[in-house]
Structure formats: structure tokens, C-alpha cells
Design brief:
242 residues, Alpha-Beta Plaits, four-stranded antiparallel β-sheet, two-stranded antiparallel ribbon, 27% helix
Length: 242
């Protein structure tokens, strides 16, 4: 009884190996697993060529073939579309004046460049049309901004502000929002609430009630007088950075 002859070769050193062998006995290279479609293709490659690049070659070739097919289909579609574009030519259309009397012909051009174009729409600023029977409401009005809306710190922007109060996060955001609305009612501007854990310049674990979004420390210092006079004597300035 003869021994089974090896059918595959190591992709690194070219030494033959057995079907179920996992590593090359000559160089120690991990051998390709010859199972499934990739295994069959790898075995066929190795029987024909001494060098095998690896199993990655098959998906690369597959996507290359798909790209060639898709490109060919796109070129064919564009060519067919260009060939199918109709050519419009000028014709001589007789114009009849009176009963049965042909006085001459008028050239009528059907070229797309000479076709009449629709006039641009006219936009007016008057009242909008309304359905029949519906009461007329006149022109559209823009709703007034909410006077109780709080300021939001601009995303990604660093600057300075005046801290009115810092409330522990364990007490909930509702308490901080209530204090911010009170400050707004007192007449302070650009009042809002910051989560200190989201800003590196603030001590984490607090909801910070602030007033003012300033670019410089001097501007923030100038705003402290208003904060002190409107019910927040302990207000102080601080930088705000992410």
C-alpha cells in the first residue's frame, strides 16, 4: 500500500504538505485551510503555481470583477441613453388665413433651445389665500419668543460667565431651573443652567446657574454688578471650557 501523496504546497517556502496539516514542517508558516469554495480555489491555485498569495486574493478578485461589470453596465446605459435622445428639427407649418386660402408658411422651430419658457412665478408679500368659506386671517405673523426660555451655552464655544449658584446634582435639575427662572424674572440676561460634569473648567457634580455668555474675563467682571444687585450677592466669574 502506497502512502498518500501531498497535494498542496506551503505559500512561503513551497514545501508540500498533507491535506489536514495545519503548519508547515519546514518554515512553520500557518497553512491555508482548504475547506469550502475558498479552499477549493486555493488548492487549484497551488497545484498550478508554486506561490500562493493567501486567501485574501479571492475577495479582492471578486470585488474587482464586480467593479468591472458595474462600470461596463454604466457605460452601456449612458451610451444607450445618448443614442435614444431625439433630435428636434425645424418644420415649415402652413398658416391658413380665411376659408381655404393659404397665404404662406411660417417656420416653426421645435428645437429645445427655442421653445418658449414659462414666466417666473410672482411672489407677493400680501395675505395668503384661504379655502372658500374659511375666515380670512390676513398675513402670516411670527410668534413672539418665549419670555421664560433659558439661555443655552453655545456648543464647542469657550468663554466666561457669572456663576449665580451651584446646586448639587443629587438635588435634581428642576431646582436649578427654578433658580434660573427666578434670576431671569429679576432682570438678569442670558440666564441658563450648565451640567458641570460636561465642562473641564467646572467642578463636577453640580448644576451651575449662570448669567451671561462672555468672550473675555473683563466682560464677565462687568456683569457681576448686575448679578449682585439682583439677588445673587455671592455670584462670581469663571471660565467655561469643554
Amino acid at each position: 500500500m502506497t502512502d498518500k501523496q501531498p497535494r498542496d504546497y506551503c505559500p512561503r517556502c513551497g514545501v508540500a504538505y498533507e491535506e489536514l496539516q495545519e503548519y508547515c514542517l519546514e518554515c512553520g508558516e500557518r497553512l491555508p485551510v482548504n475547506q469550502g469554495v475558498v479552499g477549493v480555489l486555493a488548492s487549484a491555485w497551488q497545484r498550478r503555481f508554486a506561490w500562493y498569495p493567501g486567501d485574501w486574493i479571492w475577495p479582492v478578485l471578486f470585488f474587482l470583477v464586480l467593479t468591472v461589470i458595474a462600470t461596463s453596465a454604466a457605460v452601456a446605459a449612458n451610451s444607450a441613453r445618448d443614442k435614444g435622445t431625439p433630435t428636434l428639427a425645424a418644420t415649415q407649418t402652413p398658416v391658413t388665413v380665411g376659408p381655404g386660402a393659404t397665404q404662406g408658411t411660417v417656420p416653426v422651430s421645435t428645437s429645445p433651445a427655442n421653445l418658449p419658457t414659462a414666466p417666473p412665478p410672482t411672489i407677493t408679500n400680501g395675505p395668503l389665500p384661504h379655502a372658500p368659506g374659511a375666515p380670512s386671517t390676513g398675513s402670516v405673523t411670527t410668534p413672539a419668543p418665549n419670555p421664560n426660555a433659558l439661555a443655552v451655552w453655545p456648543p464647542g464655544q469657550s468663554g466666561w460667565t457669572d456663576v449665580l449658584e451651584s446646586l448639587p446634582a443629587s438635588g435634581g435639575r428642576a431646582a436649578a431651573l427654578a433658580r434660573a427662572r427666578q434670576a431671569k424674572r429679576n432682570g438678569l440676561e442670558d440666564v441658563g443652567v450648565l451640567d458641570s460634569s460636561q465642562y473641564s473648567s467646572l467642578h463636577p457634580g453640580y448644576f451651575v446657574v449662570f448669567s451671561g455668555i462672555y468672550r473675555t474675563q473683563a466682560d464677565a467682571t462687568a456683569g457681576l454688578a448686575a448679578a449682585h444687585s439682583k439677588g445673587f450677592p455671592d455670584a462670581y466669574q469663571t471660565p467655561v471650557t469643554r
